[in-house]
Predict the structure.
Amino acid sequence: MNDHSTPQPVVRLDGVVKEFVSTTALDGLSLEVGAGEAVAVIGPSGCGKSTMLNMVAGLDRPTAGTVTVHGEDLGALNETALALFRRRRVGMIFQFFNLLDDLPALDNVALAAQLAGVAARPARERALELLGELGIANRRDVYPAALSGGERQRVAVARALMNRPGLLLADEPTGALDSHAGEQVMDLLLDLNQMGQTLMIVTHDPRLAQRCASRVVRMADGHVVSDRSLERA
């Protein structure tokens, strides 16, 4: 049997090393994520989880090794091509939302599409549709400061999904939320994955990993120490 039947992984890290001035954050990290998987990467603070996610997002470059996402070797792209790649192929959700305080919810979401070249009207229509799907269309004209933490994270999720990315990256997405809002965001991520969205979640919260992931990768000292599939209920 030939191996053409194996789909190409969405994410492939091969022997990735990342050195900062006084420390090695990633030490020969290798990891693959297939289409439709929900992979939670867990481990103690300082083990390299967020550095790894930044590599996959094209926000940082490895000292050695290769990072391939959607078949593109990110190391071969210049800064302009990387910025375009990030806008079109990857969605990112952060712990502290990273919303623009001077724009209401709808414009925070629509801006992601406008930066990728979509005209204002269709961008706003899609933004409103996403806010509706996430249950916060009635908050579209509200500025981030007046939204609850859970609402802000939903706006951030809508923004991340705006350009229909093949890959959604989440860095401690429930880290700044109370337990109720955190549960809602977990449910949202689980629903997205069940609809086929490929997810990579970095978290130190084992409940988030158990709830949302089909696979849990544990990191320590800059490399993978265990990798196991989860049976979902």
